[in-house]
Amino acid sequence: TMELKGTLKGHTGSVASIAWNHDGSLIASGSYDNTVMLWDPKTMQEKGTLSGHNGYVLSVAWSQNGSLLASGSSDCTVRLWTPDGQERGTLTGHTGYVLSIAWSPDGALLASAGVDETVRLWTPHGSKKGTLTNHSDIVRSVAWNHDGSLLASGSDDKTVRLWTREGEEVGILSKTTLFVASWWKLDAETKKLAAKVDEKCATVEGSRGLYTVTSRADMVVVLMFNKDGRKW
């Protein structure tokens, strides 16, 4: 059974996103109070408050080695922070709320997505690597697969799109009846990609770039790749 270990109090607005760092020594939380807060899960004490955003902080994500924390906001920016709370840069380009951010497993790329219907790719130094524009509605979620070779994005346009690290679209899951997305698996042997929502699956088969939809899922709001690419 699960046991409550403690409650982290400090935000003055709704908490929209939380993320553990790589070794579990820090928790980051993003809030409608426009701040990111850092917490020590052992002592339950606040380690710092990161101020800089001029809007709601809707998404937070640590790089794989915990050296950088990214935060996405309704102020249309992504900000980069060090574990001790120092701001490393502000990534500008989005023209709407930033709803989702995700680091590639090797920490070499950061993906961001939002209300402006785009997915954007960045380096850890803040350089722009590409803007992915094939969605026709709000992009609510992005997620990398286990080895960082594929990025998935889910949108209100009722599609999930698959992209290479270079920003080339190599697959699309479409014709869902509501939003888009859920848990994913990419089987390394069969090369099948599947999404699962409410016990219904949508499977895309074939080699990279040759995907066909064999069945449909209903609703997708969150995208997630399993670490080894084989399980839900």
Helical run tally: 0
Secondary-structure content class: mainly beta
The coarse silhouette is globular
Question: What is the makeup of the main sheet?
Answer: 5 strands, mixed
Beginning-to-end CA distance, first to last residue: 22 Å
How is the largest sheet built, in terms of strand order?
20-19-18-17-21
Order of secondary-structure elements: EEEEEEEEEEEEEEEEEEEEE
What is the C-alpha radius of gyration, as a whole number of Å? 17 Å
| Mean pLDDT score | 83
Considering DSSP H and I runs of 4 or more, what fraction of the residues is helical? Answer: under 10%
Proportion of β residues? over 45%
Runs in which pLDDT lies below 50 for 5 or more consecutive residues are: 176-192, 195-223
- Strand tally: 21
Secondary structure layout:
Blueprint: E1 15-20, E2 27-31, E3 35-40, E4 45-51, E5 57-62, E6 69-73, E7 78-81, E8 87-91, E9 98-103, E10 110-114, E11 119-122, E12 128-132, E13 139-144, E14 151-155, E15 160-163, E16 169-173, E17 182-186, E18 193-197, E19 200-205, E20 212-213, E21 223-225
Parallel strand pairs: 17-21
Antiparallel strand pairs: 1-2, 2-3, 3-4, 5-6, 6-7, 7-8, 9-10, 10-11, 11-12, 13-14, 14-15, 15-16, 17-18, 18-19, 19-20
Question: What is the compact description of this entry?
Answer:
With 232 residues, the chain is mainly β. It contains no helices and 21 strands.
